[in-house]
Amino acid sequence: MSKELPAPVPRLTVITLGVADIRASIAFYDALGFSRRLKATGEAVAFYDTGGPVLALYPWDLLAADARLPDNPRPSTFRGVTLAWNCASREEVDAVLAFALGKGAKLLKAAHESDYGGYSGYFADPDGHPWEVVVAPGIEVGEDRRVHLAE
């Protein structure tokens, strides 16, 4: 008689971005101030502590091959995914956007009041991955840099 295993606990642990030039992407994310870990991987893959899920950078073609997906054509339009940098205040949103642009990010949308009572703007990393920089009602950024959601 087989014993049924308990359902696994869902969790998001790593977000991996496919990048065209890993050296340039490492320089960009280093410049943003994310803390790189497992540096022994060199330029094969880069891992960053984000205060939540790990951010990984991996060459686009190798990531596609690993997932058994076609490498081409690479999308030049919206991919249906954004990353977010939640902030504690509107002033922090403005500061983060200015900081990212100063490190080579491209502005996608200037910070603005949102229809849900928040404040946000968007930048793109060197490979066009969009990041929302946002302060939103019900989402608090704690002293631990982690996001805390209201019940």
Automatic annotation (TrEMBL):
Per UniProt, residues of the VOC domain are 11-136
What InterPro entries does the record point to? Answer: Glyas_Bleomycin-R_OHBP_Dase, Glyas_Fos-R_dOase_dom, VOC_core
Spell out the Pfam families in the cross-references.
Glyoxalase (PF00903)
Top-level division of the source organism's lineage: Bacteria
- What is this protein identified as? VOC domain-containing protein
Q: Which organism is it from?
A: Bradyrhizobium stylosanthis
